[in-house]
Amino acid sequence: MSKKGQIPEPDSSGAAKPSRASVGRLSLYLRRLEALQREGVSKVSSRLLGEALGVTDAQVRKDLAYLGNLGHPGIGYAAPELIAAIRHVLGIDRDWPTALVGVGNLARALLRYQGFVERGFHFVALFDADPAKIGQTLEGLTIHALEAMPTVLAATKAELGILTVPSQAAQSVAEALVAAGIRGVLNFTPQVLRLPAHISVVSVDLTVQLEQLAFLVQLGGEEPTR
To answer: What is the domain-level CATH number for residue 27?
Structure first.
């Protein structure tokens, strides 16, 4: 158990860990906290965070409980302390060297998004299967052939990989990334990846998101009952 005011280390002992939904909310709390801090707010309550994000204050307290005993009854949370704790638990109080495979339009947009750098995600390597792109420079990085993955990833110490390749190539490319030492994959293809259990995978299918949006619009904006 962590002492009050002390940022806990992520628990690897098998104790209860936050769900993926809770982790998603922690990211949203962090953005709101940073905005409040820029406005000069130094203390926040679970109700304030909950109202801003549309969740109950009880849910906020449950999510923040994973961070340790940081709250103060009748006072709330110190914003700087809470920001530091969330960043630590999310693992973004350090740099994450990241490789990107498939240098198309989506990849180019991702490379130019400054929000990644602000969160510690730094692109260090680019790969593509198109011979016409090999050797080109984009955002200061040289595009390498897929065959160069082992050498380039070892040299750059990349830990994360982003896939923006055609879906039929996703599985083989993901396997190549893992074989070269990548520990986590952000998959922008509709392909369901089958990778070793110790490899973390997050998939983002924009078509599915649009389908869900269309469904909600069709309902008149109301969330369906569970």
So the answer is: 1.10.10.10
82 and 125 share one domain: no
Q: Any bridge partners for residue 4, and if so which?
A: none
Measured CA distances, 189 to 143, 153, 162, 196, 208 (Å)? 20, 22, 10, 18, 11
Both 81 and 128 in one domain: the answer is: no
Q: What is the pTM of this model?
A: 0.81
- Whole-Å CA distances, 45 to 62, 72, 75, 111, 192: 13, 9, 7, 36, 40
CATH code of the domain covering residue 107: 3.40.50.720
- For every one of its 226 residues, what pLDDT tens digit does the chain have, with 9 covering 90 and above? 344 434 344 444 444 577 888 999 999 999 999 999 999 999 999 999 999 889 999 999 999 988 888 877 777 899 999 999 999 999 999 999 999 999 999 999 999 999 999 889 999 999 999 999 999 999 999 999 999 999 999 999 999 999 999 999 999 999 999 999 999 999 999 999 999 999 999 999 989 989 999 998 988 866 665 5
78 and 116 co-located in one domain: no
